[in-house]
Amino acid sequence: MSNKRIGCENFGKFYTEGKVRNRREWRGVTDTLYDYSRWLHNWITMAKMVSKPRNIKAMFRYRWMANYLAVPHMVDKFTMGLRDEALVVAAKVVALAVLSIAGSSATGLFLYVMASIIYGLYKRMGSLLVMLLVPIMIFGAPLIFMLAPRNGFVGAPLTVAFLVSVLFDVQNLRDRIRTYQAAKVGL
Questions:
Q1: Does an H or E element contain 25, and which?
Q2: 128-156: pLDDT as tens digits
Q3: Can you tell me the distance from the alpha carbon of 6 to that of 67, in angstroms, rounded to the nearest whole number?
Q4: Which residues contact 34 (CB under 8 A, 6 or more apart)?
Q5: Taking Cα atoms as reference points, which of 37, 34, 59, 35 lies closest to residue 47?
């Protein structure tokens, strides 16, 4: 009997050349670029939070504020081995958590909903989405203005849209798991 666990054979390939590269996981071009963009977004959000004058002072006064520097490492460990929809859902959840910690949970909910809408359209239309971008922006603008948080207030439309987005993500992940289980049984 093999010492290998079932389902872990393609969990992620790591670079082996160089000191720094052996810590990054290669997931293919699109998933690696998406993961890197989310990692960079987290650093930008944290830099905006810390760059406020009172937060700079707090960073040196309170030792626990330095724990925010561990967020990118946590994100890397949280998303290790994920691809496609699982990576997108994890990135949306991490962005929501980071924005909530930074004091902007309404913006986090809004970004979660918008990312779900854009990913859902991309998943259904593929590259056709690029051609339909202008009409979608024209007809989708009222939706954006209806959902956008005003002064940090989370309204009923945003709450309903967030719940629908979460249900959309749960359904997509459930479909992926069923597909994976059917493929595993077929082997």
A1: strand 25-26
A2: 887 888 888 888 888 888 888 877 788 88
A3: 36
A4: 87, 88, 91
A5: 59
Could you give phi then psi for residue 158, rounded to 5 degrees? -70, -40
Q: How far is CA 99 from CA 36, 43, 49, 113, 170, in A?
A: 18, 11, 9, 14, 21
For residue 26, what are the β-bridge partners?
A: 13
Alpha-helical (H) ranges within the chain are 29-50, 53-61, 71-78, 84-101, 105-125, 128-131, 133-147, 156-186
Q: Is 81 helix (H, G, I), strand (E, B) or coil?
A: coil
The structure tokens listed for 101 are: 């910690």
The average confidence (pLDDT) of the chain is 76
Which DSSP category does 155 fall into?
A: -
Residues making up the chain, counted from first to last: 187
Q: Which pTM was predicted?
A: 0.60
Name beta bridge partners: 25: 14
Bridge partners (DSSP) of residue 14 are 25
Q: How many CB atoms lie within 10 A of CB 178?
A: 10
Two tokens, residue 160: 């309903």
The secondary element (H helix, E strand) that includes residue 13 is strand 13-14
What is the C-alpha to C-alpha distance for residues 79 and 154, in angstroms, rounded to an integer? 28
Residue 110 CB neighbours (<10 A) = 21
Tell me if 112 sits within 8 A of 147, measured CB to CB. Answer: no
